[in-house]
Amino acid sequence: MKFLRPETLGEAAALAREHEDAKFISGGTAVVLMLQQRLIFPTHLISLTGVTDVPGWREVRRTETGLRIGGGVLLSAVARSAHVRELAPSLASAAGVVGNARIRNQATTGGNVAESDYASDPPSVLVSLGATVEVDDGTAARIVPAAEMFTDFFTTDLRTGEVVTAVHVPAAGPGSHASYTKFCSRSAEDRPCVGVATAARLQDGVLASLEVVLGAVAAIPQRWPEVTRAALGRPLDEQVAQEVAEEYAMLVDPIDDHRGSAWYRREMVRVQVRRSLLELAGDGGAA
């Protein structure tokens, strides 16, 4: 296995196209783990740490429409960012509970999205907030909705040579609230057994919009818009929270692993969705 360190995004993309079994690496937290577990067998590792021609690669910026988080921004920086904590507090919360401090100080925003790890915390939050992902292969860029980015276990909509250069999070409007809750069946530093990202907008005391997205229960973040649409026009109260939780528990088809059986995950979905929605009702996650 060869280690390559290009200096431009175009060079990195060209190397990926030249070497079919190459793998991009930045913080390395996910890639190194998969190498150790013999889940991947790349012929080349293409480091993105030397790439210097991507504007805002390591910056969190406020924009006219919300936030732009560069692909090279560490998760620890996302968690600490005053801009993120103000405009997208649920994302700051999710970034702040990924693994432990060592992992958060190495893992990047772009790498977290690109790996599509089913048990990582940020993806479900990005979907709940209506975020979009900016990808670029050095010749052309495109924007992919976060809801369409994750396609299977460790699989995304990324094409050969494309790199996640930024994540865009829209600014929440008046009356908006969001939260992220992580339930771990083992230690607090473990990956979640169930993660729940919620986002809502209240107008005149009733729901004008509602998103509930589950993480760590299936290959990709799970959501059922038909369920949340049925709650619109109603107060966000105990009855709505219970109804949505019951529907999600009924619709989810959970995985079965060492963090929890399918049955256990289904029960935790019921509990955690209800708790998350009641947290919003109590204004626990103002956005």
From TrEMBL:
<dbReference type="InterPro" id="IPR016166">
    <property type="entry name" value="FAD-bd_PCMH"/>
</dbReference>
<dbReference type="InterPro" id="IPR016167">
    <property type="entry name" value="FAD-bd_PCMH_sub1"/>
</dbReference>
<feature type="domain" description="FAD-binding PCMH-type">
    <location>
        <begin position="1"/>
        <end position="174"/>
    </location>
</feature>
<dbReference type="InterPro" id="IPR016169">
    <property type="entry name" value="FAD-bd_PCMH_sub2"/>
</dbReference>
<keyword id="KW-0285">Flavoprotein</keyword>
<dbReference type="InterPro" id="IPR002346">
    <property type="entry name" value="Mopterin_DH_FAD-bd"/>
</dbReference>
<protein>
    <submittedName>
        <fullName>Carbon-monoxide dehydrogenase medium subunit</fullName>
    </submittedName>
</protein>
<keyword id="KW-0560">Oxidoreductase</keyword>
<dbReference type="InterPro" id="IPR036683">
    <property type="entry name" value="CO_DH_flav_C_dom_sf"/>
</dbReference>
<dbReference type="GO" id="GO:0071949">
    <property type="term" value="F:FAD binding"/>
</dbReference>
<dbReference type="Pfam" id="PF03450">
    <property type="entry name" value="CO_deh_flav_C"/>
</dbReference>
<dbReference type="InterPro" id="IPR051312">
    <property type="entry name" value="Diverse_Substr_Oxidored"/>
</dbReference>
<keyword id="KW-0274">FAD</keyword>
<dbReference type="Pfam" id="PF00941">
    <property type="entry name" value="FAD_binding_5"/>
</dbReference>
<dbReference type="InterPro" id="IPR036318">
    <property type="entry name" value="FAD-bd_PCMH-like_sf"/>
</dbReference>
<dbReference type="GO" id="GO:0016491">
    <property type="term" value="F:oxidoreductase activity"/>
</dbReference>
<dbReference type="InterPro" id="IPR005107">
    <property type="entry name" value="CO_DH_flav_C"/>
</dbReference>
